[in-house]
Design brief:
Helix content is 38%, strand content 17%. The longest helix is centred in the middle third of the chain and has 9 residues.
């Protein structure tokens, strides 16, 4: 998997840094939010955080870009 890519074909955002970029927050703040279940729909898979873009948009009230 290409770590420079924010999103894959399924609309998933992998990694705390990429999730931070998507919501416009600093990586440390985002990691804290992820670890304390403040981002609904985010899960840890094999040690990496992942969330569907649609769930992230829903949680933060952002419009989805097609």
């Amino acid at each position: 998997m290409d770590d420079n890519k924010t999103e894959n074909e399924l609309g998933l955002i992998w990694g705390a840094d990429n999730i931070a970029r998507a919501i416009g927050r600093k990586p440390g703040i985002t990691l804290h939010m992820l670890q304390n279940d403040h981002i609904p729909g985010a899960k840890q898979v094999c040690g990496r955080w992942v969330i569907a873009r649609s769930k992230l948009c829903e949680a933060f009230g952002m419009a989805e870009v097609a």
